[in-house]
Design a protein that fits this description.
The structure holds two protein chains of two kinds. Chain A is α/β, with parallel strands linked by helices. Helices cover 35% and strands 25% of the residues of chain A. A six-stranded mixed β-sheet of chain A has the order 6-7-8-3-9-10. In chain A, strands 2-1-4-5 form a four-stranded antiparallel β-sheet, covered by helices on one side. Classes of the chains: A alpha/beta, B mainly alpha. The interface between A and B is medium-sized, with 22 and 25 residues.
Chain lengths: 240, 178
């Protein structure tokens, strides 16, 4: 058997965000069955797996959107699964950024207002929020599109606006759920290039859910979710 | 690096741009097609000699100066026709399903070993290679990206096969372990 040069998984002490033995069911349907995964600060982790394997549910648990039936989710050393909803909401707003498959821009707002949204929700003055938002447009190749509404943007442009929105508040962790899933290969590649470049520049930790190997290849490391649990090669070898 | 059989046609193609010395051909071959593995001078001159024998290139008169061969080679009409034909001909669409990969899975199932574990290891190896190619794309030029993309799409196709096979292991096991 070949011995691939697999990048080493970070030590548990180095995890910025971590799920430990997370179990979650939707009614009688088990989604996660003891899933454990950790992501180091500044790391880009790809979470892969077939449809229905639980990878998006795992992301939602890590991000504090869902709370597990059992197990723990820790961020920066403290449990977040036991926080009250308003505290988790504040954590998501202040520390986390999100990009989803379909940009989910607010159609009534301009592109720059969409990007500024996390700052506005966090209490930043409108003029300041818009000014910070505009700074991202050049970096993501969106200059000149600031006042367009989502219906006037191409898929790739809308997704880059969504990426800017995910990064504008300079989150510690960016959660990206199939961020290129609705784009063609070339456009998806451009979005990934920008996502990785921005994350590296800002030192942002990224949890990237994708079923596409070419997208996962932008990450530092990948884990596979299968039947609600996380498989990693190092786990298999170490018998953990 | 291109397969050995592609070296003559690559050199012919380079000569179609302009007549060149063996040294220049080697330099350009290494730059465009070598991918980290340079073409030995011996192979360049042996290939040029064969191409000349077959009437696809003609050597000019030896020029004064140092070096093993100061002849400038030019492509002939026959050589140009070969380049045309080669460029117009599609490559045999052979399945890239790797026989060895297939044999490992079947054998593992047959012998009651963990085919899934093997496939996970293979997936990790594929993804690691894809990371390297992606990095090559990000840091290299347009020609690097072109070649890296070709590798990436083929590796991705293998990975799809690996994932599908993973999902079918139980059914496959029933067939190979009656």
């Amino acid at each position: 058997m070949i011995a691939p040069r697999v990048p080493p998984a970070p030590r548990a002490d180095d995890f910025l965000i971590e799920a430990r033995n997370v179990v979650l069911s939707f009614g009688a349907t088990p989604a996660l069955q003891g899933a454990s995964v950790g992501v180091a600060a500044g790391e880009i982790l790809a979470v892969m797996g077939p449809s229905g394997s639980g990878k998006s549910t795992l992301l939602h648990c890590l991000a504090g959107i869902l709370t597990p039936d059992s197990g723990e989710v820790r961020y920066a050393g403290r449990r977040i699964d036991t926080l009250r909803e308003e505290d988790r909401s504040a954590l998501r707003r202040d520390e986390f950024g999100f990009v989803f498959q379909f940009g989910q821009l607010v159609p009534e707002l301009t592109a720059e207002e969409n990007v500024a949204l996390p700052l506005l929700l966090g209490g930043t003055r409108r003029a300041d929020a818009l000014s910070e938002a505009r700074a991202w447009f050049g970096q993501l190749g969106l200059a000149g599109l600031e006042l367009r509404r989502s219906g006037e943007l191409s898929g790739g442009q809308a997704q880059r606006v969504a990426l800017a929105r995910g990064l504008v508040a300079r989150p510690q962790v960016l959660f990206a759920d199939e961020p290129t899933g609705s784009l063609d290969s070339l456009t998806g590649e451009q979005v990934m290039e920008l996502l990785v470049a921005a994350a590296r520049q800002e030192g942002t930790t990224v949890v990237l859910v994708t079923h596409e190997a070419r997208v996962a290849a932008y990450a530092d490391r990948e884990v596979i979710v299968r039947d609600g649990s996380v498989r990693t090669l190092s786990n298999d070898r170490a018998g953990l | 690096m291109l397969r050995g059989m592609s070296v003559p046609i690559a050199l012919l193609g380079l000569l179609e741009r302009e007549p060149s010395h063996g040294y220049d051909l080697k330099r350009d071959y290494d730059a465009y097609f070598g991918r980290g593995k340079s073409l030995p001078f011996g192979q360049v001159y042996a290939t040029l000699a064969r191409l000349a024998r077959d009437g696809k290139v003609v050597p000019g008169d030896a020029e004064p100066g140092a070096g093993p061969d100061r002849k400038r080679y030019a492509i002939t009409d026959t050589g140009r026709l070969e380049v045309d034909d080669w460029l117009a001909e599609p490559v045999e669409p052979e399945p890239h399903l790797q026989t060895v990969l297939f044999v490992k899975v079947v054998l593992a199932l047959m012998l009651g070993r963990s085919a899934e574990s093997y496939l996970d290891t293979q997936r990790a190896a594929h993804l690691q290679r894809m990371r390297e190619l992606t990095e090559l794309k990000r840091s290299g030029g347009a020609v690097d990206a072109l070649l890296a993309d070709h590798g990436l799409f083929h590796l991705e196709a293998d990975l799809r096969w690996i994932d599908l096979t993973c999902a079918r292991l139980d059914a496959l096991s029933d067939v190979v372990r009656p």
